[in-house]
Amino acid sequence: MVQKAKILLVDDRPENLLALEAILSALDQTLVRASSGEEALKALLTDDFAVILLDVQMPGMDGFETAAHIKRRERTRDIPIIFLTAINHGPHHTFRGYAAGAVDYISKPFDPWVLRAKVSVFVELYMKNCQLREQASLLRLQLEGGRPSADEAKESAGLLAELSARLAAVEEQAEALSKQLDETADAAAVATAAHLERKLTGLRRALDALEPGSGSAAG
Q1: CA distance 128 to 89
Q2: pTM above the 0.85 mark?
Q3: Alpha helical stretches, state H, the chain
Q4: Residue bearing the bigger pLDDT, 53 or 205
Q5: 179-197 average pLDDT score
Q6: Which residues does residue 9 pair with via DSSP β-bridges, in sequence order?
Q7: Per DSSP, what are the bridge partners of residue 81?
Q8: Disulfide-capable partner of 12 in 16, 30, 58, 101 (CB 3.0 to 4.6 Å)?
């Protein structure tokens, strides 16, 4: 049974956290609150997250500083970060967000549907990563235990086919989102599309390597 993905919501204002929870509750994932950068970093020490929604303007450690800490840690450096801000200081301020490692930078008030759609893509990618790791572990165990039985081989082939189909669905969803973002012609489109492309390409290569007869699987 696939566990739910965890989404980290970081904002010093309780009403903003409540609003994010209302928007993202439809995704049916686990939403984790953090009211400061320090609290977010503490949560990231023990739990794995699919995506982080990070407020820029916070007292003490702001969003930029928090993101810098996240990106310096081996465990958390690849977690997608979406910056949320109530102010817009222009291109320089936005560029600083991308320089800190964000995959997107959204100004408040934002469209709830757009935010939910963007978060859902990263959740799907995270879930596919988890499924691929589990499948790779299963195949390694079968290979280490000797030649798999006909039933085991059939089961593995079925799981791979299902994973491939699900990944194809995510690829299609990401392509549609990328086209939507391209219409804005801003840095957000470039950063988000590039991140998705890298993740999906890596997932597809990993899945292809597990296919029977491939070099990795055979070795």
Answers
A1: 37
A2: no
A3: 14-24, 37-46, 63-72, 91-99, 112-144, 150-182, 187-210, 215-218
A4: 53
A5: 60
A6: 33, 53
A7: 52
A8: 58
